[in-house]
């Protein structure tokens, strides 16, 4: 049931039926051609995430989730007449976390050393509340800085900070 408020939702069949039966003032707009890829990708991402979570709760099966994801990739490939070779998820069910040169100075003393990763994802946004049991922003920045070889800060002036273990160009 749609409650009163502002929305930015794709009108799917279910919402369309609710709107038809609702005795409310409704404001809609056409999806802009330029924004359509992002809007539809977000819409599909939400649907897929919910279904994968259900599979996880029901079967706790990463293999089944990979099967579903690869079927989606295959469907997109066939419907767009574009070959998406190499974009299917590997059966290994692993996520790439880092790549470094074998000659990287951070591993000079100990080849089996690992880079301390931030607790929060670097691929998704995170909200830092400052709560005691939550990751602290300064610690996360420190871990991020130690894991990279270059930092670019951009504003009106361009500035590059190089960690001490790298030589300046």
Structure, described:
- Helices cover 37% and strands 5% of the residues.
- It contains four helices and two strands, in the order H-H-H-H-E-E.
- The protein has helices spanning 13-21, 36-59, 62-80, 137-147; strands spanning 151-154, 158-161.
- Helix 2 runs antiparallel to helix 3 (62-80).
Give the class from helix and strand content and strand pairing.
mainly alpha
Largest sheet: 2 strands, antiparallel
Helix count from the secondary structure assignment: 4
What is the approximate shape?
Answer: extended
Strand adjacency order, main sheet: 1-2
Can you give the mean pLDDT?
A: 82
What is the first-to-last residue Cα distance? 60 Å
Radius of gyration, CA atoms, in whole angstroms: 23 Å
Estimate the strand proportion.
under 5%
pLDDT under 50 segments (min length 5)? none
Order of helices and strands: HHHHEE
Query: What proportion of the residues is helical, as a percent range?
Result: 25-40%
Strand tally: 2
